[in-house]
């Protein structure tokens, strides 16, 4: 009995020691996450402020230039500065969002909204890209009545812009994109289908990894990008309790389907 009691005492001491180590480790992790959050907040301000100034002043110069009849050469250079600035700002925002999610600092802003109105708003925002490539699109709502969601509309909008923007990028001029949505007992489903170059099975294995870029021989423009978009989409969906799947075949287009609960 004495030996058994002694063994229990030693076991309790070991458990207590490991518990204290675990608690200390958790405290250090919490402090690290808080420090990372503060760093991201400061970095966000330091990077976005000058970039927004560059973008803003370039837009002013272009507007003033139209009135003063700037040369085509100068307009072209200003437009390149504006395009590059917006691309860099988008890249910084995506990286910061990914870092916030990893640090547990990303907040969810819940509110009621209708997916039909949100999709129409997204397509209106992407219309210049569609017109530039003469791409036709169709919104299909399988659920007859408009349905209300209680979720983060801003993050779902960001997800849709990423996915539909990619569909536009990988679709040849004159091509077609189909966006189909429905609601059932399992949640909300939105499928984005394009008739573009498609994605090989080898690339599909890594497509949601950070900085992975899909290569397209037939569409050199499709190579341009940070390789962050799909990774961010997956992370945002997981944050909202959702998921994403891909069906694609090389040369036959791709279909990305996202699923998320109607209420979080």
Which structural traits does this protein have?
264 residues, alpha+beta, 5-stranded mixed sheet, two-stranded antiparallel ribbon, 7 helices, 7 strands, 56% helix, 17% strand, globular
Question: What does this molecule look like?
Answer:
The chain is built from 7 helices and 7 strands. The protein has 264 residues and is α+β, with helices and mostly antiparallel strands. A hairpin with a 2-residue loop joins strand 4 (176-184) and strand 5. Helix 1 runs antiparallel to helix 2. The model has no long low-confidence stretch (mean pLDDT 83).
Percentage of β-strand residues: 15-25%
**Number of helices, where a helix is a run of at least 4 consecutive DSSP H or I residues:** 7
User: How would a textbook summarize the main sheet?
Assistant: 5 strands, mixed
Measured distance between first and last alpha carbons? 54 Å
Mean pLDDT: 83
The main sheet orders its strands as 2-4-5-7-6
Helix and strand run: HHEHHEEHEEHHEE
In brief, what are we looking at here?
56% of the residues lie in helices and 17% in strands.
How are the SSEs ordered, and which strands pair?
Blueprint: H1 2-68, H2 72-102, E1 111-114, H3 115-125, H4 127-132, E2 136-141, E3 148-151, H5 153-170, E4 176-184, E5 187-194, H6 201-204, H7 229-239, E6 243-248, E7 254-260
Parallel strand pairs: 2-4
Antiparallel strand pairs: 1-3, 4-5, 5-7, 6-7
């Amino acid at each position: 009995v004495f030996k058994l009691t002694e063994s229990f005492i030693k076991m309790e001491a070991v458990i207590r020691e490991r518990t204290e180590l675990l608690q200390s480790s958790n405290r250090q992790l919490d402090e690290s996450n808080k420090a990372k959050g503060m760093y991201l907040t400061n970095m966000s301000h330091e990077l976005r402020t000058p970039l927004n100034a560059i973008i803003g002043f370039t837009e002013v110069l272009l507007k003033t230039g139209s009135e003063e009849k700037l040369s085509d050469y100068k307009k072209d250079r200003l437009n390149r500065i504006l395009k590059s600035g917006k691309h860099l700002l988008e890249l910084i925002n995506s990286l910061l969002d990914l870092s916030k999610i990893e640090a547990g600092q990303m907040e969810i802003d819940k509110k009621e909204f209708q997916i039909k109105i949100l999709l129409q708003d997204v397509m209106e925002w992407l219309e210049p890209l569609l017109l530039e490539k003469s791409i036709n699109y169709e919104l299909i709502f399988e659920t007859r009545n408009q349905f209300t969601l209680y979720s983060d509309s801003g993050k779902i909008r960001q997800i849709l812009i990423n996915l539909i923007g990619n569909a536009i990028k990988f679709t040849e001029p004159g091509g077609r994109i189909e966006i189909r949505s429905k609601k059932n007992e399992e949640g909300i489903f939105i499928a984005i289908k394009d008739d573009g170059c498609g994605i090989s099975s080898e690339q599909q294995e890594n497509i949601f990894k950070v900085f992975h870029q899909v290569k397209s021989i037939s569409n050199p423009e499709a190579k341009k990008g940070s390789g962050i978009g799909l990774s961010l989409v997956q992370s945002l969906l997981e944050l909202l309790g959702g998921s994403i799947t891909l069906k694609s075949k090389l040369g036959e287009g791709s279909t990305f389907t996202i699923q998320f609960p109607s209420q979080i």
